[in-house]
């Protein structure tokens, strides 16, 4: 591996090869929702909790102090107000991300979208540039579109994750498929590290942390979870709970105890 990419990855992953990433790019897609109104406030909470890395857009990266957390700048954008929210377009260059001190970049592709061909074309271009500059590429790969009835279907998630690896991603983020057995199929068929998405705010903490625990048991190298962290009443404690599962091999009960302790 090229030394620049290796160094940047070391600022996203710990020595155990695992990571807790908190994406906060939602201000573009759905606006300044709860938890993301004051970005410095939430950044301070994540730093306190010990998050490994964050995902933000270029404007936030230029204005907020993220401490020593790995900085991943998101290059994709669309809004929930637009005619096709599933169509992600490029809104930042790799050069601009590097000027802002990025340790990595991320893109979002909705596999099955009507605009999938355009997104794949842009994926290929970004992947080539990322290799040229030695920048790790996180690809958010989700089955979403007219033909997709279940975004968590194992066959569809396997295809989306493998597509990310095939086109040059260093890390793939995708949906958890609902069980350790089915998610192992995703891990086994994807030749690059996989982290899970959190999706909408979970119904309860037990359900959420159980999903995280099971994904790690299946072979995921970590999480990239936003709303279930930054919208939690105690984001720092939630990060500590995730760290316990991801980095310390703790069970759900131990992670819940950390949450209760605050």
Strand order in the sheet with the most strands = 1-2-3-6-7-8-9-10
Please indicate the count of domains.
Answer: 1
How much helix is in the residues? Answer: 40-55%
CATH topology: TIM Barrel
| End-to-end gap | 40 Å
Number of strands: 10
Amount of beta strand = 15-25%
Give a quick summary of the entry.
The protein is of the alpha/beta class and 262 residues long. The chain has helices at residues 3-9, 26-29, 39-49, 58-61, 94-99, 116-133, 154-166, 180-188, 205-218, 227-230, 235-248, 252-261; strands at residues 19-23, 53-56, 70-74, 76-77, 89-90, 104-111, 137-143, 171-174, 194-197, 222-224.
Summarize the SSE layout with pairings:
Blueprint: H1 3-9, E1 19-23, H2 26-29, H3 39-49, E2 53-56, H4 58-61, E3 70-74, E4 76-77, E5 89-90, H5 94-99, E6 104-111, H6 116-133, E7 137-143, H7 154-166, E8 171-174, H8 180-188, E9 194-197, H9 205-218, E10 222-224, H10 227-230, H11 235-248, H12 252-261
What descriptive keywords fit this protein?
262 residues; alpha/beta; TIM Barrel; eight-stranded parallel β-barrel; two-stranded antiparallel sheet
Descriptive account of the structure:
This protein has one domain: Aldolase class I (TIM Barrel). 44% of the residues lie in helices and 17% in strands. The chain has twelve helices and ten strands. Strand 6 (104-111), helix 6 (116-133) and strand 7 (137-143) form a beta-alpha-beta unit. Helix 7 (154-166) packs parallel to helix 8 (180-188) and helix 9 (205-218) crosses helix 12 (252-261). The mean pLDDT is 97.
